[in-house]
Amino acid sequence: MAGNADPTVHKTPPRNSTLSADSEAGLKSTPLAVGSAAVSEHISTVGVEVNDVRPWIARDVQNFEKCKADTMLQELLARCTGSSQNLSGSQKSKLLETALNAVLPICNVGAVAQEIKGHLTNFCDIEREPLTYAPFVKAANCALRELSKVNVDGIPAFKVDDKTNVLLHVNDPKPIYQDHQDKQSERKPDVVVVSHQTALGMKAHQTQESQVLTETACKSPKDNFQWTDVRSTLELKRPRKFLTHPPSVYKTDYVVPSPSAQYMEYRKDANGPAKPTGSTPATGSAQTPHEASNELRPLSQSSRGVKRKRDEDRTEEKEPIKPHPIVQNGLYVAEMFAAHIARQHVISFIVNNDYIYIWFCDRETTIQGAAINFVQDLPRWLVLLLIMQRMGYEQWGLNRVFEPEPGFLGKVMIEDAQIDLELDVKSKERVTHFGIRGRATTVFPVKSEALSGLQRDPCFLNESPELVAKLYWPEETRQSEPDILKEVYKIAQTDPDVRGHVPELVWFHKFKETSTSKIRVALGLKDAERAEQGSRVLYIIVFRKLIPITTLSGEEFIAAWWQVVKCHRALWKGGVLHRDVSPSNLMVYRLRGQYIGVLNDYDLSSFKRDGPRGLERTGTVPFMAVNLLSPAAIAGKVEHVYAHDAESLIWVLTWVCLRYEKGILLSTNRPLEEWLKADAYQCSKDKAHFWSAKMGDMCPSGSHKTSWKLVKKCFDGIHSIYLPSGYRKLTDESAFQLLLEGPMLEHESRRRTYS
């Protein structure tokens, strides 16, 4: 949970989405799930090319849920009313019908209708994708201007002087930058949705608002937009040369797309980049400027927050492979999530030929709305634009508690708990999430007058006055981390191996209203009775600050690591199964001149009496036991036993000894780097090869040389449980003695002999 932690990157296979409630009850362990959580929380150490993060974003978006176009429009319209939960299905259907009839005159009558049709005709006639941006934006903004006069019962009226009203703006080829710890992303979305105020920019006093709508927005901006100001993005693709012109008269009936175009699918060509389905590729189609723009690069102090000079230092960089538009959209969604604290969802769009697809993305999954042909079905496109025009910050997905408006940095008040929080979101110590699905953990320093005065339990020994806040989205069906810690603290009262070696929870709050189940029930994707299965909800937990164990070396590191080993063993015996051992979950604090080891992060833990719950992975691939990386284990058919976590503790020990020098991650030539990008199967092969062939050639860093004999002794034990006949099952106590206690006793004996 700290910025100095090494990456814990995994490339997980898809989880078994066909599991029923009955089959889940028979699982021996929680199967691995797709997602970007592990790579995202340590983006600074992934690498300089965005290709390193694309695979995880691809896994976030490839297994999307599907929803009918009108069902999506109905729900988004209902959300504009502010009372979507109180509207019945028939009321939502009536609301859409009313909205379609309200916008129909704009499609058919008068000069505005002809102007919109003219822009759409130009869009249809242009073959090169970049040249289609301007007519598309002109058509949309012309419609938005006219929609400002439309009133629909229940939908908020347009506010004429409100600078937060939105418009579409061409962005490509202008890059949008964002800092992710000490790396910086650079992306070039084709078209963005921004406020009038953002579009006017620094020259608001010189530019008339009508000029922005008709001229300025059709060109790339002079100044770079910021992700905090971008409400949404539109990724445009034009694989088809010829598109049918607008009809002479529009009706409100849904124009049904061809079966191949109803939804965009993510399919990879074995010999090339993935392509959108339902499209006829144009011969010699043009490459768009943004195809080489999706890179992460180191962030220097001199380049923070300012315009960058890029072209002269790009000669040695590799040209990234063109990503699939669904993945491209996913990268933009991840940027919009990262730009805001506790953002609840992102709504984005992909335009493929003359079809527009609505994407609703939250921490559970992505949902794709069926295609709307905005040329042939203009009324539905205008209803979508009406929704975009009338949605407030909350409907766009911003969390009003933490960010009443974009860029808010003031004090936060959790009103129902009467707790004040001063979040240091700009801190260099902030650990941010880059991704879409998963827990999306964000950690940053926090101050609170109310929390500082709380009485402390004497079993906590950490004397640090500093606090950190952890915002994350756990699965609702899992035991909550506060519930797990409550049991942990009971064990700590009587067990000295646990007391002082677990994190101190100061305060927590569950935001029940943020459940991701609500949208799925509303769209008919989930039955209300099983809505919580797989759904996520926002938590905030405040802890006393800890230090990454990776900052230690030599005997200080070994002593703290051994304290964590004993704490983990005691908790397992007490019925608390951690099941996610990784370097980032081993921490320390100072007490009377010594470092004390802490076993941290219990959000994937469980009680032995309850068995596995939820669908999320329980483990981080580079540190998981090889026996848990088999196809059977990935499917949840292998029981997660103590020996597996014991093996994980050895992998962490090995990892730190090879990759850290005097508490700092090696900048180059880091051993085991390939494990960060390997899938479960490949990583299991790499690990087996490591201990059978490579280990003898490995050299630990200078500050960890004294620990290497302990590592080798631990691997003697691992050798003895992976037999040609299969995995050797051990009792928990036998596993502890063979893999950990025996090697440590020998290490201590050797140290005393030579000291």
TrEMBL record:
Polar residues composition-biased segments: 277-291
SUPFAM superfamilies: Protein kinase-like (PK-like)
InterPro entries associated with the record: Kinase-like_dom_sf (IPR011009), Pkinase_fungal (IPR040976)
Residue span(s) of domain Fungal-type protein kinase: 328-657
Composition bias type Basic and acidic residues, residue spans: 309-322
Domain of life: Eukaryota
Protein name listed in UniProt: Fungal-type protein kinase domain-containing protein
Organism of this sequence: Suillus plorans
